[in-house]
Amino acid sequence: MAKDSTDPELEKEILVRKAGEFEGTLHETKSEMRETQKQISEIQAELAQTPARLTTQVTSGDNPALLASLKSSLAELETRRTDLLTKYLPTYRMVQDVDKQIAGLNAQISSESQNPVKQQSTSQNPTYLLLQSELVKANADLSGYNGKLRATEPIIDAYKQQALLIDQKAIQRNDLMRNIKTAEDSYLLYVQKQEQARISEELDKSRVLNVSVAEVPMVPWFPVYSLWLMVAAALTLALMMSIAVAFVSDYFDPTFRAPEEVGTFLGLPLLACFAKGGSPSGLGLPAAGGGMRVQSIPQNTGGAEPRLLTQQE
Questions:
Q1: 169 with 39, same domain?
Q2: DSSP string, 91-135
Q3: DSSP H helical ranges for the chain
Q4: Residue 58: strand, helix, or coil
């Protein structure tokens, strides 16, 4: 760990940045190489169409040396013919051969006089020389770009390998740091448990109970039961209890409230009903309403039905 004390992330970032710079240079070099190759092709096409030399001067005229030589030969042949004629006839073969030679020299002299000699002066074409120099320069640039390309690619590979190695070292370093952290946490937990055990043992010896609050109580923001809900429940319960009490009271109350109840209860016809503390209200069924007391009046009528008297409450 002491050997790799530098920050691996920072070192990796530096290597990646340098590799990116060299990759940019590599792409630029490849682009320049393509441009140079295109330039070389264009220069070679121009050289194929451009002459290497240019005509600077053209002169025409007779060739005096050749004409002088031909005329000298013609004079010699004529002298020889004259000598032969002094000895032989013109039909002699040697004389005829000399005549043929003289005729050939005359024809050659006439031809040379009609076709003058042309002289041309040429010099090197500066455009051709410029194109050649440009071609040489372009080839030199292309060679330089090839060398730069071959030198840049290993550098980029080296930076990438170094970055990959740093990644691997960073993974190993993270694993070691994680193991150290785990071991440290385990040690602290062990020390904490040991201390808790020692404290518990001391408390047990001193007969002291250690109570810990499982959950701290908190005042709720809202009541557990709503006030309006409680009021509604109370009113409903009171109403139900009131109905129940009224039903039970009515069920167990022996008081008759209507004459019909008396007849229904006794199974006897009702003859009259009296108001409380007053005279009878008349025979027949009284109007319903109010409580009443019923009294049975037995009579010896010889088998007649008994009569009931009621008192209006």
A1: yes
A2: TSHHHHHHHHHHHHHHHHHHHHHHSPEEEEEEEE-HHHHHHHHHH
A3: 8-49, 64-87, 93-114, 126-206, 227-252, 259-266
A4: strand
* Residue 210 resides in a domain: yes
Its pTM stands at: 0.36
Same domain, 195 and 134: yes
Whether 28 and 152 map to the same domain: the answer is yes
* Interatomic CA distance for residues 301 and 296, integer angstroms: 15
Q: Which two tokens stand for residue 18?
A: 């340098």
Secondary structure, 3-state, 256-299: ECCHHHHHHHHCCCCCEEEECCCCEEEECCCCCCCCEEEEEECC
Give φ, ψ of 297 to 5 degrees.
-115, 105
Amino acid at 161: Q
Q: Domain check: are 25 and 149 in the same one? A: yes
Per the structure, the complete domain to which residue 89 belongs is given by: 54-124
pLDDT grade, residue 187 (50/70/90)?
Answer: very high
Give the pair of three-digit tokens for residue 73: 């030969």
In a domain, 62, yes or no: yes
Q: Is there a domain that residue 171 lies in?
A: yes
- Same-domain status, 129 and 209: yes
Total count of domains within the chain: 3
Q: What is the pLDDT of residues 246-304, one digit of tens each?
A: 888 888 877 777 777 777 877 777 777 665 554 444 444 444 444 444 444 444 444 44
Q: Are 233 and 266 in contact (CB under 8 A)?
A: no
